[in-house]
C-alpha cells in the first residue's frame, strides 16, 4: 500500500515540477523573442504643422502592428511645458475619478474677473475646453486632489508627472 502511495506522490510531484519548468521556459522564451516595436518616420505628417506655420512632433503607436510612427523624431524627446494640451489629460482624470460627472458638469464661477469675458461666468467642461478656461481646470485639479492626480498622471505615463507646481 505504501509503495502505491509513494508512487502517486512521486507522479504528483513530477507533474508539478514539469508544469513549473514549462511555465518558466514559456516566460523565458516569450521575453527573449519578443519583438521590439518597429518604427517608421512619417515626414508627410509635416503638412499638418506647416499649414499653421508651427513646429512640432508627433508619435503614434499602432498596437495591432506593434509599430511607432514618428514625425520630427529629433524633437519628440525634448521637454516642453504641456500648457493647454494638459486639458485633455486633466479632463480624463476628472471624469475617471468621478469629480466631473460628464461634459455638462458645471463649476460655478467664483466672481474673480480674469480679464477674459468668456472665462468670467459659470463653465461646463465643453465651454471650459473650448475657451481654455484655466480656472475651471485648476478647480477640477483641486477637487481631484494631489495624490489622486499624481496617481493618474503616473498611470497615464504623462510627461514628468511632477505635480509640485500645484493647481495655481
In a nutshell, what does this entry contain?
The protein has 168 residues and is mainly alpha-helical.
Main-sheet strand order equals 1-3-2
Enumerate the spans where pLDDT stays under 50 for 5 or more consecutive residues: none
Total number of β-strand segments? 5
Q: What gross morphology would you assign?
A: flat
Instruction: Assess the beta-strand content as a share of residues.
Output: 5-15%
Main beta sheet, described? 3 strands, mixed
Instruction: State the helical fraction.
Output: 40-55%
* Class inferred from helices and paired strands: mainly alpha
Distance between the termini: 78 Å
Task: State the helix count.
Answer: 7
Q: pLDDT average, as an integer? A: 84
Quaternary class: single chain
Number of domains as seen in the coordinates? 3
What is the N-to-C succession of helices and strands?
HEHEEHHEEHHH
- What is the CA-based Rg, rounded? 26 Å
What brief labels describe this structure?
flat; 3 domains; 168 residues; mainly alpha
Helix/strand layout:
Layout: H1 2-32, E1 38-41, H2 46-50, E2 58-62, E3 67-71, H3 73-76, H4 86-96, E4 106-107, E5 123-124, H5 125-131, H6 134-144, H7 146-155
Parallel strand pairs: 1-3
Antiparallel strand pairs: 2-3, 4-5
Helix pairs in contact: 4-6
Task: Describe what this molecule looks like in 3D.
- The protein is mostly helical and 168 residues long.
- It folds into 3 domains: 1-34; 38-76, no CATH class; 83-155, no CATH class.
- The chain is 47% helix and 11% strand.
- The protein contains 7 helices and 5 strands; from the N terminus they run H-E-H-E-E-H-H-E-E-H-H-H.
- The chain has helices at residues 2-32, 46-50, 73-76, 86-96, 125-131, 134-144, 146-155, and strands at 38-41, 58-62, 67-71, 106-107, 123-124.
- The strands form 2 sheets. A 3-stranded mixed β-sheet has the order 1-3-2, with no helix packed on it.
- Strand 2 (58-62) and strand 3 form a beta hairpin.
- Helix 4 packs across helix 6.
- It is flat and about 90 Å long.
- The model has no long low-confidence stretch (mean pLDDT 84).
Amino acid at each position: 500500500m505504501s509503495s502505491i502511495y509513494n508512487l502517486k506522490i512521486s507522479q504528483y510531484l513530477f507533474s508539478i515540477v514539469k508544469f513549473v519548468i514549462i511555465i518558466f521556459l514559456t516566460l523565458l522564451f516569450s521575453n527573449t523573442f519578443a519583438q521590439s516595436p518597429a518604427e517608421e518616420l512619417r515626414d508627410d505628417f509635416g503638412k499638418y504643422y506647416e499649414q499653421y506655420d508651427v513646429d512640432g512632433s508627433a508619435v503614434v503607436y499602432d498596437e495591432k502592428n506593434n509599430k511607432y510612427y514618428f514625425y520630427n523624431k529629433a524633437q519628440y524627446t525634448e521637454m516642453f511645458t504641456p500648457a493647454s494640451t494638459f486639458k485633455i489629460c486633466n479632463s480624463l482624470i476628472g471624469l475617471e475619478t468621478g469629480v466631473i460627472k460628464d461634459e455638462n458638469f458645471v463649476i460655478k464661477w467664483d466672481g474673480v474677473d480674469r480679464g477674459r469675458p468668456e472665462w468670467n461666468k459659470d463653465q461646463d467642461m465643453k465651454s471650459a475646453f473650448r475657451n481654455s478656461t484655466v480656472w475651471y481646470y485648476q478647480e477640477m485639479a483641486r477637487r481631484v486632489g494631489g495624490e489622486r492626480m499624481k496617481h493618474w498622471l503616473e498611470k497615464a505615463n504623462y510627461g514628468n508627472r511632477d505635480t509640485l507646481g500645484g493647481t495655481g
